[in-house]
Amino acid sequence: MNSIFDMENTTEKIKRGITALLLLLITAVLPAQHYLAEEGKVYFKSDAPLELIEARSTAMRAIIDADKRTFAFSVPISSFEGFNSPLQRVHFNENYLESDRYPAATFSGKIIEKVNFTAPGTYTVRAKGKLTVHGIEQERIIKSELTVSGAALTVRAAFTVLLDEHDITIPKIVYQKIAEEIEVEVEAVFTPE
Amino acid sequence: MKQTYLSTLLLVLLQAGGFAQEPLFAEQPLGKLYRQVKPQVMLEDQEGFIWVGTDRGLFRYDGRQYELFAMPDSLCNNEVTALYENEAGQLWAGFSDGRVFHEQRAGQFVMWTLEEGLPVAPITGLGEGADGQIWMATYGEGLYVHNGRHLYNLNTDDGLPGNDLYTLHVDDAGRAWVGTDGGISICSMQGQSKNIENITTADGLPDEIVRVIQPDGKGRYWIGTYGQGVVRYDPQSASFHTLAEDWPESPVNTILEVSHQEVWVGTDGDGLFRYRFAEERLQPVQHAALGNGKIQDLHFDAEGNLWALHRSEGIYKANRRFELVAETLPHIQAVLQQQDGSLWVGTQEGLFRYDDTRRSFTMVKPENVISLHEGRDGHLYVGTFGNGLYCMDLENGREKHLTAADGLANGSVLDISEQGDTIWLATLGGVYSLRCGFERPGSISAVLQHFDQKSAVGTNFIYTVFPDSKGRVWFGTDGEGLSVLENGKLRNYVQADSVPIQAVYSIAEDQRGHIWFSTARQGVFSFDGEHFTQLSVKEGLRDQVVTSLITDADGHILIAHSSGLDILDPVSRHIIYFDEEAGLQGLDPNLNAVAKGQNRQLWLGWEDRLMRYTALDDTLAIHPRVVIKEVSVFLESVRQKSPATFGASDNNLVFEYVGLWYTSPEKVRYRYKLEGFDLDWIQSGDERAIYSNLPPGSYTFNVSATENESFDQAPIASYAFTIRLPIWRQWWFVLLLLLSVIGLAYLWLRQRDKQKEREALLLREKVESQYEALKSQINPHFLFNSFNTLITIIEENPDLGVVYVEKLSDFYRSILQYREQQLIGLEEELRLVQDYIFLLQQRFGEHLQLQVEVDKPARYYVAPLALQMLVENAVKHNVISRSKPLYISIRVEGNAILVRNNRQAKLTKAPSTGFGLQNIITRYRLLSEQEVQVAQTDHTFEVALPALQNGRSS
């Protein structure tokens, strides 16, 4: 057993963590209707005066409990691709986000508005929850667009992450290359479990 | 016995309650267009404007009209549910659909844009906490707080008892107090940590549902509940105090404490209530509109007006100082409130007592009662017109009637007052002092002193007698002015401030001990112990016939006359006028039908109306607040704040201003002055001032507003601005212009100097060249050679000799002729050179050859004798012999006249000054931009002269 654990790589660790988190939620809301998303997209952009950095991931997993209006989103940090160079990606993972120590960014909480998940349409909802990036938890309200079509749910949201709020420190030299505010966009298609 | 019983009964009744008088609420209608509009919230901003949030948008009221302020988002449902003004004077409005707008600049609203989005539930409160935190209470989504970066939500998940918040109050520590369905929550947010402290029924709160939280200004809070009325919460002791036990079960919508004297409560169905602390009883307001229904909001403005918003009946306003007793009684001549609160009124018909329970006056004595007084002994003194004085011991039902038989010469007792144990009477038979008591049977009273026309008073007719705080007793007489009894000495004043005073109606004393008295025709006078000072119409008094004076609890003097009531600040002498808003229009008050009441109140009788006046101990505005609403240049609103700067052409300005005086907006008058333009103040009733074609300069527009025709001490609103000079009058432009003129002049002068210098140089060069030429021509060598040649020629060929002499003479003539000129044509010069060559050729023969290749010699000009000098140089410096002939060529090539010869230097150098060539170079430098080029090789020598055309450099 030990040897298997030792052999686990980071990705598997993350997956395990997410599964645990989702399982926790699932067990908590077991009799309720819940929706799962497996390949949610996350895109972020750092628009600094000297450099524009973009990266995206399609490895976001999420769950929404329709009855309790609770949700959980999680994306492995190491799944982000793009950047302006492979080295930049290494820096992103190793220096700034420290994905070894903090493998995933998560957002979990509750939707403020009451939403009818069975009536097709597009709703603007606000998700109130804890955003954890770089191991730092911040309470946030994130405005999202929720589209109900048939059985599927689509969630789109755009928000900003302030680096200093998550203890992500940028060395002086690259200061002008990385924005204080990272713009994040999320899109996920949920299907009922 | 019966009387005693009655009195006791009345006493009980009166002590149980107050009086049925109310401020005179008058509707402040929104106007025809907005008849169905339901007012919801009210706010008075820092400038003094009243804002009303309604279900149809946000209105601003200036006392005359409401202005609708549209929100820029057409999707907004316009139902204002919360208003808030921050310290910077920025207004925030919350709407029932969750939107929030705030003022960007005066009157311009923008939606609050947040990344997190705005709530979708009604905004029930807005407020600013510590470090710029903005709190926002909603009905449905709990509480929000924005810290400048993010919006955070506090709801049931965080520990709030409910998400439906009714009210929000932000305390001095920046904590948000909210009323929920589960009690009060005190919330704070520091960094990420939320702190919620709940006060519930377990803590003594009488009701779970808390709809109103209002600070009382003394660290305590008025709590309005759903079903249990109003309680006062003291956070220090964490205790609740119930305002009134007998709450009528309707939910509380709003609470307002006024002047630490009373609390007004607006309910959601039962109208408006008032609780006076002194009377300790909750009273429903009887007003037709405000007496029931939903009172949405209450406000007490800076002037002392009470505002009430009724959901369906509209907006109402009343001046809180004045309350009228609903019931009328004809010909009120005297009024008195006893220590126990009983209210007595004397009329021509009788003595009445007010029965609050039945809301009616009950006649106690059918006499023509003209004066009333309560003695220190508790007895009631009743002065009649013609029938003497009654002294009534209400407690024991005893009564004593003093008439002529008891020493009163006249039965008309116009005024009664008391000093020490002495009762003073002002009668139509003089002044009496007496003692009154029931202790000594038989002789219950004794006249101590009597002053009539035989005394220094000089008349029998006395209107009033007033003992002051310094032990003096003042008499107001009819026709003989004012008298004062001081240390047993009587002094009489028939003149004050150089004005004859005849009838003195009323006397009062201010807090500094100055005596004020009113006269029948000359207005009011003050006496500081040495000097009399008149206060007449000139000084702002509205009526010179003043019937009564009385001092209120704050030392203001109330001046009653048939035009209404003037309230005077005896120190600043500022007067405020009241009439319609106090219900006193067109009423004629009787002499001294005034009395001090309880709890900072005064009673004033006004024909058939009885008014209660309350001194409000707040610092109230005494002047209209004047606001410059808008400044426009060429009818376009100016965004610049004072001091502003406008361009030279932006010189047509319009100032729009308003004087906010909600008490009586129709009385507001203005005066304005544009400092730097107007020489004097301009008085106006208009709310705008127009200035066109203002010359450049610095100005300050000053405007002040008054409600009493006097602009003394009236605050001034200012707008300073500068109209710039037009560009041609700007100092820098003038300077620049001046500098350029100087520069140009300098350049021109320099140019001219240079020119002159050149000319002088040219002249000098010319003279030098002439000299040189002459020198060379009369060179003895040349002459000697010429003559030798001539001799040879004459011998051989006399004809040629003649030609030779002719040529020699031509040559010298030419030199003489051309030397004066600056330039000569190339043609003439060439002719001269040919002559010269001819002369030389007679000597050198074929060994000297001149070749001239000039196309159109007439086109070119040369410096005179320049070519001759070059040819002469060539001859002078070179060997000319059979084996070495000298070839000289002159030709025009491009821009140059080239003079060239082959170089075969003499072994013995001819004496040379080198002046000839140098002279040519210098002369050409002055004539042309081009330099004279000298090219010299081993075999050739070439000089290029600039080819001059048209007499000048080409």
Structural description of this entry:
The complex is a heterodimer of chains A (193) and B (954). With 193 residues, chain A is α+β, with helices and mostly antiparallel strands. Chain A has one domain: Lipocalin (Beta Barrel), CATH 2.40.128. Chain A has an eight-stranded antiparallel β-barrel with strand order 1-2-3-5-6-7-8-9. Chain A is elongated, with a radius of gyration of 17 Å. The two termini of chain A are 31 Å apart. The N terminus of chain A is likely disordered. Chain B has 954 residues and is α+β, with helices and mostly antiparallel strands. Among the domains of chain B are: 283 residues, 7 Propeller (Methylamine Dehydrogenase, Chain H), CATH 2.130.10.10; 105 residues, Immunoglobulins (Immunoglobulin-like, Sandwich); 195 residues, Histidine kinase-like ATPase, C-terminal domain (Heat Shock Protein 90, 2-Layer Sandwich), CATH 3.30.565. In chain B, 15% of the residues lie in helices and 42% in strands. Chain B is built from seven helices and 76 strands. In chain B, the strands form 18 sheets. In chain B, strands 2, 23, 24, 25, 26, 27, 28 and 29 form an eight-stranded antiparallel sheet that branches. A five-stranded antiparallel sheet of chain B has the order 1-30-59-58-57, with no helix packed on it. In chain B, strands 62-68-67-64-65 form a five-stranded mixed sheet, with no helix packed on it. In chain B, a hairpin with a 2-residue loop joins strand 16 and strand 17. Chain B is elongated and about 185 Å long. The N terminus of chain B is likely disordered.
